[in-house]
Known about the structure:
This protein has about 190 residues and is mostly beta strands.
Amino acid sequence: MTSLEEAETEETVTCLHLTFYHPGQEEKMMFRCLNFCKREQVRADDTAKFGRDSSVCRYSLVDTRVSRAQFSLHFYRKLHSSECGFEIKNLSKKTKLTVNQTELGHLNKIDLPWKCIICFGDYQILAEIQEGESVDYFETHLHLAEAPILQERCLPRLPSLQPIPENGISPSLFLPQGKSPTEIDENEL
């Protein structure tokens, strides 16, 4: 038997990618205690807390407007399934938390969608779950956004505003790509 045959089977690890944005991040440096460089392992039975109090929270935000414990993420395995997920709970008594426009009051919790935007105050966090098989631990990978996440990813693109003729049929539907309609004087017809 070779060492390859005797080796433990490699299992993939669930990774929670979190991209942070705040409009004052450059001058206030509220993310200076977060490790943006590498993935971090978190035991499956630990709760990942975010907030101002570094003695209570694993992920500390340096901002007096953030609650001592703002929110928590709990890793779990779904009932009668091998699929894992995350539950997010608002721990702040003063600040509401929104997850994809679902508002959570104090101690409210919901399942975290596989891709969502978490907002509180001026903070925007894009959360993306990369599924894995491990049930012993998960990983977090933190990123820093340079532009607002809501404007960058969520707002629908507005259609270009073009005049609509009185008959209600847009001539651009019938024109080849790159061609624009030309105006003709009705006397020329």
